[in-house]
Structures are given as structure tokens and as C-alpha cells.
Specification:
The complex is a heterotrimer of chains A (280), B (103) and C (164). Chain A is mostly helical. Chain A is built from eleven helices and seven strands. The longest helix of chain A is centred in the first third of the chain and has 15 residues, at 27-41. With 103 residues, chain B is mainly β. The radius of gyration of chain B is 15 Å and the shape is elongated. Chain C has 164 residues and is α+β, with helices and mostly antiparallel strands. In chain C, 14% of the residues lie in helices and 32% in strands. Chain C has two helices and eight strands. In chain C, β4 and β5 (112-117) form a beta hairpin. The relative contact order of chain C is 0.18. Classes of the chains: A mainly alpha (280), B mainly beta (103), C alpha+beta (164). At the A-C interface, α4 of A face β3 of C. β5 (70-76) of chain B pairs antiparallel with β6 of chain C.
Chain lengths: 280, 103, 164
Amino acid sequence: MLRKLFIAGVVVAAAAQPLLAADAGDPQADFKAFRKYFTERFPKVPLNDFVNGPYSMDEGLRKQWKAIDAFPPYEFAVEQGKQMFATPFKNGKTYGDCFPNKGIGIRQNYPTFDAKSGQVITLDVALNQCREANGEKPLDYSKDDMAALTAYMAFTSRGKPFDIKIPNDPRALAAYENGKRYFYTRRGQLNFSCASCHVQSAGDHIRTEVLAPALGIMNAMPIYRSAWGGMGTTSRRLRTCNSQVRGVPLDAEDENYRDVEYFLSYMANGLPISGPGARP
Amino acid sequence: MAGTIRVRAVASGDSTEVQSLIRHPMDSGFVKDSKGEIIPAHHIEVVQFEHGGKTVFTALWGPAVSKDPYLKFSFKGGKKGDDLKVSWVDNKGASDSLVARIG
Amino acid sequence: MNECDDAPDAGRRMILQGAAAGGLAAVAFGAFPWPAYADADAKEWPADAFKQKSEADTLKALYGKSAEPSDKISLDAPEIAENGAVVPIGVSSTLPKVTGIALLVLENPNVLAAAYKIPDGTEASVSNRLKMAKTSKVVAVVESGGKLYSASKEVKVTVGGCGG
């Protein structure tokens, strides 16, 4: 019951519930602690603004972002995604046939836990499952076509609050816990965890770049990075994160990546989808 | 190179604000590809905006203009429903054009 | 480059694009016989000016004169660029009879980034996005009443944007 309330995004109501012990295996307690940390550390940042990453933290960056977002270069990717989404497969079916509401405005429900396979399914994976079910080859999880498709799906879901569910299934909880473990584990030559940058150092500068807060970081995916000069998938961003701490990137949509996306998206429940985002 | 031009032109009073975005790599000529070979400069040279048979704005661009270049300017005399023609040509002779409508 | 002077091709393209943009408006454009418009012409591009390595040489090649500082030019550029590949920069001026605006990035391999022709009736204002290889002074030059005026601002860049 608690979880239901909470997943509906009734943050205030959830906060009024008796506090639960923040021990392992309690996503709801994690959620509260995570949100408390960010809102107390950045009291001036409106809750829904965390989804804008570095732009919620730095006025100079925000101004440039606003200037670029007036006519964002990612429009081309969104348009390409829209076209791909509408183009039927060889069998006449479309992506829309694989999803609730024909795939429009549903990005906030991913990742989702699939009871059949016992795995976390991200939107990207769901899209490839849809392709394969219709006799098409899967798309590369790191490349532009997948980025364009997910950009379009995010675009149709803008403003909708993340609604990630952890069903009452030990495998779902295990996936969540694995994602959380991955997020807090140090790796790479720099010996940084995801949290080192995006929790402890969120809002700090690395050279001129500002580290995005982990809260709401998935809401902006996929992202158009000026550094890439293009739209990139969540997988591509996670792989880049690993490289940036001089670690070895995992395969795109590796179980660990899917689980960490599950964890981070759950932490952002109730916060609006802002993707496709633009980032330096 | 069809469909490379996006235009938003909005009339307000006697002034029309034009924003455009053009899909183009704008390769600077200073970057190497994954094989270590220089990607030759490939950039738009001229963008022209015409309204009522008159050129209202001309951009002359070098390779230091960002990929998928953006432009904003304003001119007088445009009305809602008028046509605005945008055309560009690059250093390889490729070109595109579009007739947009002022909103 | 001959392609761009190829009138039939240009005409066909215009019709297709026009149709896509919501009707054959160009054809229906009252007083002007079809085709009413010319395309952008590569011959207008000042190749020599885009090769120059200094502000003075660039202005000489582009306008045949040098500029004096003016406080009637507003140069809107970030103090710290979020990424040198995409630096939003705007210029506007209250100077009279403005006919041209140019943007120079002094530390780029070639100094001239963009030059704009401002016909009568067009406002002396332009916004664009430029690449910056490194921290550099950005100079906005405005041609007004046959004279050149300039304003500049230092923009810090640590993630260079000499990239594509």
C-alpha cells in the first residue's frame, strides 16, 4: 500500500508515512534518503528542475542552454525518430503496435521489470524486442537510430512524471539492489563510483563542466551532447561515464547498466521526463 | 540534401523575427577521423533569406560556425502569411532551399 | 559550383520544398513572375577574408578598412563556454545605417567565423552559434555609415570545439 501511494508520485503523502529503517532492501527508504540529500544540499533548486542536470546548478550554463534550446539542434533527431516510429516494418506492423497507447507518452514507465524473463527491460531493449518480434534486426544500442527513436518517444512523454515500479518479486528487488550497488561501487583508474561525481560532487566543476546531480539524471535521456555533436542513447552515456573514470565500459544494455538505470529512474519517481535533453 | 532547413518566422508589429536551423556537418577541416585522417572542411558558405523579391539577410559562413547552424535576425515589412525563402550553398556545391511562411 | 546556378534544378527544388512547407506559395506570390527568387550564390563568399589569421588582415580583406571601438555594440557571449563546439553568441547595435556585422574569434586557426550583410530594413542584430578552439577574445565588428566599429569580449573555453 505504501509503495502504491508513493509510486503515484504523492511525495508529500509518502513523507508523512512513518519513516522506515534505511537498511538494505528497502527502495522506499532509499528514495526518501536520496531525495532528502539533494533537496537539502540544493535548497534553491526547485525539485522539478533537477531533471535539467547541470543547468539547474549554474546560471551561466543555464543561459547558454536556454539560448540553444530556443531552436535545439536535436530537432533533427526527434524528427528522424518520429519518422522511424511511424514507418511500418516489413510485416506491416509498427513500433506503436508493441506498446501501450501506441507508444506515445509512455517513456516515464521505463525501465520496467519483466516477470517472465526476471530482467529489467529498458525502453531501448523493449524497442529491440519489438523489432525482433516483427522479424527485424535489432538496432545498435549505442548508435544514432536508437538515439533518434528514444528521443522521439521521450519527446512525446515530456512533463510526465517517472512512474517506475518495483513489483513484489524478489528478482525485481534484487535487480534494484544490483543497480544501487553498481552506482555506489568505485571503479576505473580514478577509483570513482557513479556517486562520487553525481552525488558527492554534484554541482561541482570539472574544468568548465558542471557535474549533473544523480537525482533526475535519467529523466533527460537520451541526450544531445555538444561534445558528441549528436543525440546519444543512455547506453552511450553510461559507457562514456565508465571511460571518463578510466574504467572499462560494459556492453551497451548490460544487465548492470539496465539495473543502474532502474535504480536511478526509481529515485526520480514523480519528477518529469525532460528528454531528449541537451548537455555540454 | 532535401529537408535540411527549419525556419520559424514570426511577425510582430512591423518586425518579423526569423530563426533558422540547418542540418549540416560544418566540418572544420581541423579534425581527424577514426583512421587518423583529416576530415576535409565541409561547410555552408552562403545562406540567403528573401522576402517579397528582396534579400533581407545574407550570412557568409566559415568552418567555425557550429554544426547544424542556427541563426536569428529580424527584418521589417513582413506580414503573417507572407513567404520567406531560405537557401544555402556549401563549399562542395551542395545546396538546399525552402519557402517558409511567416506566422 | 555550377550546380547552384542550374536554374531548372533550382526551380524544381523550390517547388518540392515549397509544397512540403505548405503549398505552392512561391508560385502564387502575386506580382512576381515565377521563379521569383534567386538561390544563395557561392560567388558571394569572401574566400580571402576567411583565410586571414589576424583581426586587422581579416577586416582589410572583408571591408578594406579597420575598426574603432564603440559602446553602441552589444556583444552577448558567455564568460565560460559550456563547450567550444557550440558557443551561442549574439550581436546587436544601436549605430545608424548598419550594413554589415562580422564575428571574429581571434584564437581560432582562421579568425573570421561569420559575416552578415544587413540590407536596409533589417535590424542590426544577429544571433548564431560558433566553434571556439580555445579561450579567446571574440570581436564583433559592425559596419555603419561606411565605417567600422567593434566590441570584444573574452570567452573562456576549456573543452575546445575545433571539432566537426
